[in-house]
């Protein structure tokens, strides 16, 4: 076979192979194109999904920003309100501290005033007690008429002052009353009919004449026995001087009869000792 005759089938075979290869390449290309199209569609879907996610994220970020701004504004308002409340509370606390300081100062002043008042009351109480003791000593030198009762009232006052049972006001009032009674007792000239025990122990019914609180004398009902106070015994009973001269007896009788109204009012000179009666045993 000639070469020219052999070329024709080979060319035809080549053409057939090229066509086959061409058809196979087109199929692969179409398949690849389809795969790429599907991949593109998937990518587009993914991109769309991502776009949606980004939009949602942007929306969430915007909402979160709004919430954050609202929270920040609310927090700022809360802080401002709290700061105002704290300032108000601090102002109230400072005011209460000033009030408390003033109250404490007032309480301290009251306490000091109470201490001063108590000290003054204690001083007055001590002065009243001293006056009571001096009063007792003076009363022992007075006329012994009702002396036991007078001493008992004064002794009771002294006890109450010493034990604190009598407040200063009460003690002062009672002492003033006792002073008043003693002053009235010392200012009056009184005549009383009462039993008298003579120096020898004999009791007699007598007219007892007292001038103030420092002088006493007695005359019996028959004006035969007389006595002039010269002292007071330890038990408070009178000690009489009964050895009197006739002139003294006459003066005492005249004074008693004037006081009884048997003689007209007149001035009577009496034997009077200015220092008052002495306690028995003193000179």
Q: Roughly what is the average pLDDT, rounded to an integer?
A: 81
The biggest sheet, with number of strands, parallel, antiparallel or mixed sense and barrel status, is: 6 strands, mixed
How would you spell out the order of helices and strands?
HHHEEEEEHE
Strand-residue proportion:
5-15%
Segments where pLDDT lies below 50 for 5+ residues? 1-6
Structure annotation, total helices:
4
The quaternary organization reads as single chain
Distance between the termini: 204 Å
What can you tell me about this protein's structure?
The chain is α+β, with helices and mostly antiparallel strands. Among the domains are: 106-187; 189-283. The protein has helices at 3-139, 147-163, 168-187, 246-260, and strands at 189-197, 203-211, 215-220, 226-232, 238-241, 278-279. Strands 1, 2, 3, 4, 5 and 6 form a 6-stranded mixed β-sheet that branches. Strand 1 and strand 2 (203-211) form a beta hairpin. Helix 1 runs antiparallel to helix 2 (147-163), helix 1 packs parallel to helix 3 and helix 2 runs antiparallel to helix 3. The chain is rod-shaped.
List keywords for this structure.
alpha+beta, 67% helix, disordered N terminus, 6-stranded mixed β-sheet, 13% strand, 283 residues
């Amino acid at each position: 076979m000639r070469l020219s005759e052999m070329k024709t089938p080979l060319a035809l075979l080549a053409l057939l192979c090229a066509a086959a290869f061409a058809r196979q390449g087109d199929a692969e290309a179409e398949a690849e194109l389809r795969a790429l199209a599907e991949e593109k569609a998937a990518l587009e879907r993914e991109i769309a999904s991502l776009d949606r996610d980004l939009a949602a994220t942007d929306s969430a970020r915007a909402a979160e920003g709004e919430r954050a701004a609202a929270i920040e504004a609310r927090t700022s308002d809360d802080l401002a309100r709290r700061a105002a409340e704290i300032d108000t509370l601090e102002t109230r606390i400072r005011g209460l501290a000033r009030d408390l300081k003033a109250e404490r100062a007032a309480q301290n002043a009251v306490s000091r005033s109470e201490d001063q008042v108590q000290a003054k009351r204690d001083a007055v109480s001590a002065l009243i007690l001293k006056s009571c003791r001096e009063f007792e000593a003076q009363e022992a030198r007075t006329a012994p008429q009702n002396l036991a009762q007078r001493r008992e009232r004064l002794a009771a006052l002294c006890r109450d002052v010493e034990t604190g049972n009598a407040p200063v006001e009460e003690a002062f009032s009672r002492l003033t009353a006792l002073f008043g009674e003693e002053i009235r007792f010392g200012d009056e000239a009184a005549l009383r009919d009462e039993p008298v025990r003579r120096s020898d122990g004999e009791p007699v019914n007598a007219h007892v004449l007292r001038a103030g609180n420092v002088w006493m004398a007695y005359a019996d009902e028959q004006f035969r026995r007389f006595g002039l106070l010269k002292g007071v015994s330890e038990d408070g009973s009178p000690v009489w001087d009964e050895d009197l001269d006739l002139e003294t007896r006459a003066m005492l009788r005249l004074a008693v009869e004037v006081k009884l109204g048997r003689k007209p009012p007149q001035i009577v000179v009496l034997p009077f000792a200015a220092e008052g009666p002495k306690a028995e045993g003193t000179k």
